[in-house]
């Protein structure tokens, strides 16, 4: 094994959830986690198992963190 020095260390994003006695995940996220990839993760990977557990309706509300950026022309 050899030691490598890089400017940007390798990283991995993993999402897992615990609801009651049930574990949902672990889901591995390629690249950076942003609003778009987080929403896709929720819609494609998190909601289907939850729907099976709790017989969810078609409408889902998500609560989480969001960072807003705006560009202004002065």
What does this structure look like?
The protein has 74 residues and is an alpha+beta fold. The chain has one domain (1-74). It has one helix spanning 35-54, and strands at 13-19, 22-29. A two-stranded antiparallel sheet has the order 1-2. Strand 1 (13-19) and strand 2 form a beta hairpin. The chain is elongated and about 50 Å long. The termini are far apart. The model has no long low-confidence stretch (mean pLDDT 73). One of its GO terms (molecular function) is nucleic acid binding.
Content of β-strand: 15-25%
Terminal Cα span: 54 Å
Please state the overall shape, judged from the principal axes of the Cα atoms.
elongated
Number of strands: 2
Oligomeric form of this entry? single chain
The side-by-side strand order for the widest beta sheet comes to: 1-2
Note the main attributes of this structure:
74 residues; alpha+beta; elongated; RNaseH_sf; nucleic acid binding
Compose a concise summary of this entry.
The protein has 74 residues and is α+β, with helices and mostly antiparallel strands. 27% of the residues lie in helices and 20% in strands.
């Amino acid at each position: 094994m050899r030691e490598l020095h890089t400017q940007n260390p390798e990283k991995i994003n993993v999402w897992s959830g615990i609801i009651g006695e049930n574990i949902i995940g672990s889901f591995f996220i390629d690249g950076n986690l942003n609003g778009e990839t987080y929403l896709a993760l929720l819609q494609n990977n998190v909601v289907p198992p939850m729907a099976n557990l709790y017989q969810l309706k078609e409408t889902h509300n998500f609560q989480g963190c969001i960072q807003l950026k705006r560009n202004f022309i002065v």
